[in-house]
TrEMBL record:
UniProt-recorded name of the protein: Carbonic anhydrase
Entry's cofactor comment: Binds 1 zinc ion per subunit.
Binding site for Zn(2+): 97, 99, 150, 153
Superkingdom of source: Bacteria
GO MF term set: carbonate dehydratase activity; zinc ion binding
Family stated for the protein in its record: Belongs to the beta-class carbonic anhydrase family.
UniProt cofactor(s): Zn(2+)
Keyword annotations from UniProtKB, A to Z: Metal-binding, Zinc
Membrane-spanning intervals of the chain: none
Entry annotated with the keyword Transferase: no
PROSITE patterns linked: TAT (PS51318)
Pfam family, one: Pro_CA
Keyword Zinc: yes
Length: 246
């Protein structure tokens, strides 16, 4: 095969597999293992456009399962790089934390050209992030906005502890509403990681609410069922990405 002209069959296989697994989820059979597959090329416009928001979410669930079972897809990153040179058609935009232990593309087993990625401490949504997500969905055709928090989040812990440091102080202020709105019966301190994780989860929920509230563009796309805005939590222990009910 000519290395400079990667073909698409393997990508089509995994998309068909995603749709089949999505159907199996109704019967509770999604725990079945799926053979490792090669990603020989990046997503094409036709492939991305054929996916529903639910199919994209299921695709990421299966990618996370592969990650947890240490059987990632056989990504040909050089082929993906070449294939996406003249255009990109990501299926989702991910808003996640900068934490080095929570790289969204790796834990979802995604390849080059598959996701837009926005990272900021505490996975908060400001005007710049909203504009980026509007570009991803309204102009570039992404089907899912995925907000991904994670356990043992240092930014959340800093907000709980009222940490202050230059511009970080203002960023942590954006997380503090989640502290007040978190129902928790135990010790409400940054040293209690159960509380930190509860606040991190609430912070994701509020971020999803803020996206809908502050971006009429994304809210309209979701109301039209063209996209889904979804929250999730990545668990450092075990590696599972828990998708909130959609």
């Amino acid at each position: 095969m000519n290395q400079n002209q990667p073909t698409q069959p393997s990508r089509r296989r995994i998309l068909k597999q995603t749709l089949a697994i999505s159907a199996l989820s109704v019967t509770g059979l999604t725990a079945l293992s799926v053979p490792s597959i090669s990603f020989a090329a990046s997503l094409s416009k036709e492939e991305r456009d054929a996916m529903t928001p639910d199919a994209v979410i299921e695709h990421f669930k299966q990618g996370n399962l592969r990650f947890r079972e240490n059987r990632p897809a056989k990504h040909d990153y050089l082929a993906q790089k070449r294939n996406s040179l003249t255009g990109q058609y990501p299926a989702a935009v991910i808003l996640s934390c900068i934490d080095s232990r929570a790289p969204a593309e790796i834990v979802l087993d995604a390849g080059i050209g598959e996701t837009f990625n926005s990272r900021v401490a505490g996975n908060i949504s400001n005007r710049d992030m909203l504009g980026s997500m509007e570009f991803a969905c309204a102009l570039s055709g992404a089907k899912v906005v995925l907000v991904m928090g994670h356990t043992r989040c240092g930014a959340v812990r800093g907000a709980i502890n009222n940490a202050e440091l230059g511009n970080l102080t203002g960023l942590l202020d954006e997380i503090k509403p989640a502290i007040e709105k978190t129902a928790f019966s135990g010790e409400r301190k940054g040293s209690n990681y159960d509380f930190v994780d509860a606040v991190a989860r609430k912070n994701v929920e509020l971020t999803v609410e803020n996206i809908r509230k502050n971006s009429p563009v994304l809210k309209e796309l979701e109301d039209q069922k063209k996209i889904k805005i979804v929250g999730s939590m990545y668990h450092l222990a075990g590696g599972k990405v828990e998708f909130f009910e959609v």
